[in-house]
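Exercise: predict the fold of this chain.
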Amino acid sequence: MRNKGFTIVELIIVLVMAGVIMAVISPSLSRAFRRTGVRAAVDEFSSTHSLARSAAVRFGRMAELHIDVDASAFWVEVDTSSAGGVMDTVGVVKYQQGNDVTIKSTRALLCFDARGLPTTRGACEAPDAEIVFSSGSRVDTITITALGRILR
């Protein structure tokens, strides 16, 4: 009568074959994950830019899109109080460091007036900006026009 199961030699052969396959495909998987991380960061920035514009219109006050290249983060602040004068973060602060994505930007503070149009009032910078997202050799750029339109 024959015992059912696998021998140690068969298990070792299967494990070696699996290891060889993983060694062959892991570089391409790594590149794919980096590419996905940069693409996700660009998509998140685009939606955060849109959030800043819509928050300005919704609250009828100036909204600020902050870009912190040192922390690889961006977020929206707007005065949401009825009395005025109290800035609040709208949405979530998006950190890209966990994704190994770095950010370079020609601007640090983009603002939108109550109509959702770009403004340079106060400490706000000109709306024409270029934001570069990179991870390893993968680079993606967003260009924002003087009218606040995003070009990818």
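Check your answer against the key: DSSP finds one helix and nine strands in the chain.
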